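Continuing the batch. This is chain 6 of the set; chains 1 through 5 are on the previous pages. Same settings as before, nothing changed between runs. Recording input and output for traceability.
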Amino acid sequence: MKNIIAENRVRFQLLFFLPPFRYTCHMPVSFFRMSASGVPCDEAEAARYLGYAKNTSPDSAVSDLIHKACAKMQERLAPQAVFDVFPLVHGADNLLSFAGTELHSVDLSRNLLKCARVVLFAATIGPQVDALIRRTQPGGKAEAAVMQAAGAMFIESFVDALNDKIKADEESAGYKTHPRYSPGYGDVPLSVQQLFFSHLPCSRIGLTLMDTLVMAPEKSVTAFIGIEQY
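Output for chain 6:
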């Protein structure tokens, strides 16, 4: 794992000094919130996070654990997101420039090809989810694994809803969006998470980035979304 991270850091170069966690004002930012009950619950997707294939159903005992975990967790969701849109300039050698930032990434450049703007967003389903997962851990590995899967399902479900909102807004103005792309994938290391905490007021949705580059609450996502004109 350390070798992979080291290799990614070589391939992906940040070409500016980035003070950690300091939000640099760019207006306007947008906030997106949902009620806990409004976040779609997909128990089949939770099963997939447990390792079940798409067309394979868990047995009745596991299905019951999933159902109970999802019901318990949904009561504790506090879904919030913050996002902003920045002009994007493509340069030579996979250089991307936006919001005073210059960075090289083969994979992100490919994802943002033909995009003139880029969305940066941060989303979370709140601290009570983490607390529920921690309380479940002493109860047994099966229950803890199911609760983790439920959390992964709910944050992705909320992010899908955010993605759909951004997509609909842009399509109404004659633009299309590209698939979202998060730090930690391809040649984009987790250290790039610092960009989001510098350019977005993440603290306003209760989101922080620790020295380990892990976000708190843990069930949170940051990502880029490219915007291309039709």
